[in-house]
Amino acid sequence: MFKQSGEQLLQEKYNTEKRAKAFYNNQMLSYLNETMKEFIEAQEMMFISTSDRSGKCDSSFRAGEAGFVRVINKNVVMYPEYRGNGVMASMGNIMENPHIGLMFIDFYHSRYGLHVNGKAYICENKELDTLQLPKKMKEDILLREGEKAERWVVIEVEEAFIHCSKHVPKLQKIDNLSSGLKNMKGGDFFKVKESKKQVRVNR
Q: 0.85 exceeded by the pTM?
């Protein structure tokens, strides 16, 4: 961290330097330890943050079967990109600015979270062999992902640290089919088309 970062300026202003120093010393690593690896491999979802070259931010959500985010080693993780709306917002940002933040939260058991920050790049399926993946991981990817993963985002870890459970709600999983929830796939849930139509009418 450079000497007068925003963090440091606010720590001085709000007198939290002692707490912050304890956090940096006791809760933050520049790699993933074994407990962090196990935590990531148990998660079925995560939130990601990216920004373009000018700093305009975007947040998004990724999900899959438990372990869909692969921990290659203590310094590298990767996640699959499945078919989406075709906008490519997050990967487009990565093309301009490699900095990325991953946020994993266990809503169902511990309620703790894990921040993983680093630099990302896009890896096509045909390029996976260049990553020297463990044999077991390669076999698992072939078995579980097949052609579902169109490509991968690889992250070189720079920071990993805890997110406290204090304000994290504990949730309960339900089966979508048995709950009667409708599949909104492809739907215009927020009625954007209707809003745009209304704007045209009012012009």
A: yes
